């Protein structure tokens, strides 16, 4: 065993990700055309959490706007 993957936060109630099984490992942030552009547009406005601001700052131009990839 090289490491472990935490599959649950051990909460006692339903959570935001309950019922989303079968998707495997989900990379974050998810960047696909139509989803990321509105989030990128909010970058620097104070409307995003510091965590999301950090993700957006690490994206390449192609990831920020996948519709313009040649």
Summarize the structure.
The protein has 3 helices and no strands. The chain has helices at residues 36-41, 50-58, 61-64.
Which features would summarize this protein structure in a list?
3 helices, mainly alpha, 0% strand, extended, single chain
What do these coordinates show?
The chain is an all-alpha fold. It has a domain at 27-64. The protein is built from three helices and no strands. It has helices spanning 36-41, 50-58, 61-64. The longest helix has 9 residues, at 50-58.
Task: Give the percentage of residues in beta strands.
Answer: under 5%
> How many strands?
0
Which residues form runs of ≥5 with pLDDT under 50? Answer: none
Q: Can you give the mean pLDDT?
A: 76
Structure classification: mainly alpha
- Sum up the overall morphology in one term: extended
Query: Topology as H/E string?
Result: HHH
Separation of termini? Answer: 41 Å
Count of DSSP helices? 3
Q: What is the percent of helical residues?
A: 25-40%
The biggest sheet, with number of strands, parallel, antiparallel or mixed sense and barrel status, is: none
Rounded to the nearest angstrom, the radius of gyration is: 16 Å
């Amino acid at each position: 065993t090289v490491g472990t993957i935490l599959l649950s936060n051990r909460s006692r109630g339903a959570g935001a990700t309950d019922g989303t099984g079968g998707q495997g490992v989900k990379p974050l942030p998810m960047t696909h055309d139509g989803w990321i552009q509105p989030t990128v547009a909010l970058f620097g406005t104070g409307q995003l959490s510091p965590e999301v601001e950090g993700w957006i700052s690490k994206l390449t131009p192609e990831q920020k706007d996948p519709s313009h990839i040649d």
